[in-house]
Specification:
about 190 residues, binds glutamine, alpha/beta, Rossmann fold, globular, seven-stranded mixed beta sheet
């Protein structure tokens, strides 16, 4: 199976490395429209959501991707990637978005004091808690009926699913634990 990682800005190399640890999975870089044709699912990495959004527009990826996701193509956004998948941003509204997740998300939601932190996160259906790394992370503020919450912290949901779309506020590519990526692969397999 070929899983693409949007490779315009941010932590795409780390995502590719962890994907390649999963048997039968090949992580590939996605930089242009043609690259979308050869993949079974796409990860949008952490980085800076405003920058990635502008690059998506510049390389004519924003609308094609939006259409694919609306038709059921599996996509997983982490941190900045999660922000890009959201329909609404709390108290901000002019950055380019894919706008497919029926949520309002708040950027840098843990305050300017806390740049990064590690939390033992309880995740739905995980027997052992997951060590989640948050870096200037967003949190979900409002949530539509079709969205399932998989994990939350005091500030709000941080890991959610809406059919073919998965979103995490944290950075699963920065650990050795492959369970989160495996969950995305399971979503792809169900839809194939
Ligand atoms: N704070 C960044 C943003 O708003 C996201 C940070 C990250 O991806 N680690 O886009």
């Amino acid at each position: 199976m070929q899983v693409g990682v949007l490779s315009l800005q941010g932590s795409f190399v780390e995502h590719i490395n962890i994907l390649n640890k999963i048997p039968g999975v090949n992580g590939v870089q996605v930089k242009k429209k043609e690259d979308l044709k050869k993949i079974n699912g796409l990860i949008i990495p952490g980085g800076e959501s405003t920058t990635i959004g502008k690059l998506l527009e510049r390389y004519d990826l924003l609308n094609p991707l939006k259409n694919m996701i609306s038709e059921g193509f599996p996509v997983f956004g982490t941190c900045a990637g999660f922000i890009l998948l959201s329909k609404r941003i709390f108290q901000e509204n002019d950055q380019p978005l894919l706008g497919v997740f029926d949520i309002t998300i708040k950027r840098n939601a843990f305050g300017t004091q806390i740049n990064s932190m590690e939390i033992d996160l309880k995740i739905k259906n995980f027997e052992i808690p997951y060590k989640a790394i948050f870096i200037r992370a967003p949190v979900v503020k409002e949530i539509g009926d079709s969205v399932e919450v998989l994990a939350e912290v005091e500030e709000g949901p941080v890991f959610i699913k809406q059919g073919n779309i998965l979103g995490a506020s944290f950075h699963p590519e920065l650990t050795d634990d492959i369970r989160i990526h495996q969950m995305f692969i399971d979503i792809i397999n169900k839809r194939r």
